[in-house]
Amino acid sequence: MTFKNSFKTAFKGVTANKSRAALTILGIVIGVTAIILVVALGEGAHQLILGQIQGLGSKTVFIAPGRQPTGPSDFAQIFSDALKERDLALLEKKANVPYAEKVMPIVFGGETVSYAGDTYRATVFGSSESIAGVFDVSAKEGVFFTDDDVRSRADVAVIGAKVKDELFGSVSDVVGEKIKIKERSFRVVGVLEKKGQSSVFDFDSAVLVPYTSAQHYIFGIKYFHRFIIEATSEDLIPQIVEDIKITLRDSHRISGEMKDDFFIETQVDMVERLGVVTNVLTLFLGAVAAISLVVGGIGIMNIMLVSVTERTREIGLRKAVGATDKDILLQFILEAVLLTAIGGIIGIALGAALSFVTSIILSRAISMAWEFAFPLSAALLGVGVSAGVGLIFGLYPARQAARKSPIEALRYE
To answer: Which of 18, 143, 197, 370 has its CA 20 to 30 A from that of 187?
Structure first.
């Protein structure tokens, strides 16, 4: 019997009982749909976060305290007090870091902000006026604080659009009003343009104050959580990184790289680390979703075994008219592969549709451009794996059918 005839026979066997076939492939459909959805959302998240990191600008260098985290035990070190005022002064000297255009210190933390009995939990950023340029944020109302405000520890604040809505409601002009943070009054000098989450930070829910005021009045610290340096040119990033290392190691009296109590990240570093994290997470979730394919394969094996038993007389008749064991084996393997392949195709279509709808919902929910990404590799993998599952789990029932004696099969009732 030719392969074409075997395929036609297998197709008739699959379509003979449509309701059973539909229920049989359901597990495969769910598995492939889940894989497509997980991979598509993972790719969308990757592109979204990548866009936010790139929004910082390719000339930006981050300096954080502690060793660079390589495991769960290292994350506590990023809250160390390694970055001090003297470090800021040294980094601002052109002799030490000649290609640094801006050096901006940052302290931050979650604090309750209140006004006339209303409260809101916001992220308080203490920085210099350079934060507007580095993070590309602007004041819709009023102005930003100045270097003079930083030097004098002024009680001034620039609030995000959401903070304004939560605390002041329908009040249109809030410039000049006073809000309280840690029982200290800060005069609102500006309101940020509504922007949504930008460059990893959500400035709509933020309060910006001079870093000296934040250190002294809000957080009660004498160190910084981050330094952000903007280079004069993207090509000079490697040189700036080396200058920063030399300057901070001399300041901290560190003799070797292994003893560093700070770490430096560039946009390239952040993108690479992001890629590793999102890929591992996507693979893990995809593997969890793939478990349903195995469950679906077991279901197909059970149904095929039932089908072999029900079609015992058919098998005997086909053998009696000349069908070989190989023909019977091929027919039942093709039936199993057809079932899983059809399930895979339906799963791809359903997964793509759900991914598209989900991307639209997420874009509206987070007010950001969550891009729809159709993972072609995952689609091909889904069809291939589902067909492979059909082949593997269909082999045993097919062998059982091929081994049946034609005489015993014809006698079967």
So the answer is: 197
The total of other beta-carbon atoms located within 10 Å of residue 62's CB is: 17
Four-CA torsion 186, 190, 192, 193, nearest 10 degrees: 160
Question: What does each C-alpha distance from 243 to 55, 57, 94, 95, 229 come to in angstroms?
Answer: 24, 20, 11, 10, 12
For residue 262, which of 87, 66, 107 has the smallest C-alpha distance? 66
* Distance in angstroms (rounded) separating the CA atoms of residues 356 and 342: 21
Cα distance between residue 112 and residue 276, in whole Å: 35
Q: What is the pLDDT of residue 60?
A: 82
pLDDT value of position 376: 75
Give the span between the Cα atoms of 401 and 367, in whole angstroms.
58
In the structure encoding, which two tokens stand for residue 269, read together? 């570093």
Nearest by Cα to 182 from 126, 99, 138: 126
Distance CA 358, CA 370 (A): 9
Cα–Cα dist 185/380, whole Å: 60
| Terminal Cα-to-Cα distance of the chain (whole angstroms) | 27
Structure tokens given for 391: 């082949």
DSSP letter at 129 equals T
Q: At what angle do helices 325-366 and 312-320 cross, to 10 degrees?
A: 130
Are the CB atoms for 286 and 39 separated by under 8 Å? yes
Assessment of whether the complete model's pTM goes beyond 0.85: no
Both tokens of 273, joined, read 């680390």
Q: Are strands 178-181 and 201-202 parallel, antiparallel or unpaired?
A: unpaired
Locate tokens 């940020």: which residue?
192
Q: Report angle CA 337, 342, 346 to the nearest 5 degrees.
A: 150
Q: Using N-to-C axis directions, what is the helix angle for 237-252 and 85-92, rounded to 10°?
A: 140
What are the phi and psi torsion angles at 67 (to 5°)?
-75, 155
Tens of pLDDT, residues 286-344? 676 667 667 777 777 777 777 766 666 666 666 676 777 777 777 777 777 787 788 88
Check: CB of residue 261 under 8 Å from CB of residue 80. Answer: yes
Partners of 62 in the β-ladder: 228, 265
